[in-house]
Amino acid sequence: MDKLADFWKNNQQRLATILSMLLVVCMMMVFVDTIFFIMENTNPISSPNQTKMIKANVIPSETINFSELNLFGAKGKEGLSKRIDAPSTRLALDLLGVFKSGKVRDSSAVVAQKGNDGKLYRIGERLPGDAILDSVYENFILIKRGSRLEKLMFSEGNFSTSIKNVRDRQDIAPIQSEVINNKQITENMILNESNEIKENSAQLANSPKEVLLELINPRDDKVTINPSEAFARIGINLVEENNTKGYKLDSADKTLVQAGLKNGDVIMSVNGIALGEAAMDAAALAQALAQKRARIEIKRGTKRLFLTVPIP
Length: 312
What we know:
Layout: H1 2-10, H2 12-42, H3 48-57, H4 79-83, E1 93-100, E2 108-113, E3 119-122, E4 126-127, E5 131-136, E6 140-145, E7 148-153, H5 157-170, E8 189-190, H6 194-199, H7 208-216, H8 227-232, E9 236-241, E10 244-249, H9 254-258, E11 266-270, E12 273-274, H10 278-291, E13 293-300, E14 303-310
Parallel strand pairs: 1-8
Antiparallel strand pairs: 1-2, 2-3, 4-5, 5-6, 6-7, 9-10, 10-11, 11-12, 11-13, 13-14
Keywords: Cell inner membrane, Cell membrane, Membrane, Protein transport, Transmembrane, Transmembrane helix, Transport
Organism: OM182 bacterium
InterPro entries: PDZ (IPR001478), PDZ_sf (IPR036034), T2SS_GspC_N (IPR024961)
């Protein structure tokens, strides 16, 4: 007994330290067990039977394809132009052409007073008759007179007199080839370069309508056999290079420049029919004449432009 007392006295400090460490370890174990107990109760493990019941009660949601709902309108359709209900203007004006740009403010139209040459006007500019060009659409424009909006549309009657002399000079023969029926395509020339629009804003000696009709209408019966020869006479040659096939403008002919074409432009298609094959080229020309409207695709560098012009 005396030895035990002596041992306690000699090792009292060491024994106290060891006991303290044991107590700390026990407290940590209790703390960890408590944490695991709480976690198991908050996230109970589902039994296989419960899992099956949950799956049986789940109703699969219907998949919705938002791209098919056309929440913001259908692509490629100008629904707005169909909803516009404005009275026709009584001003003595003729609409000769429309030029639509990706930017609305850069769109323009060729308008002429009856009996006069056409002139290019941009949106916001003043037209003859104290009217302002308000907006441009595929087959008409809206002009503003005071607070009133009026509509100016293409008129087929406007072409009969102005084109008669052109046809007489060129001795155009009628096309005898079969006309291919296709839906009427009415699109507009997209001009994203405002500088190009300004270059065409000067008053034209001949309207773009007359110039393009000279290109579209056949000049003789040979055009139905080999259109490339007819185009070559006015400086437009058949070309096929770098995946590009069509008729390239290789001259600075004044008539072609007045139509908005530039040296190096390539005419790719007419009314959606690709050019470069004699049979298809003749069919494209025949179709344009039959539909009374030609849509011409032009490649200028890396850009593609589209020009639409009515035909009498």
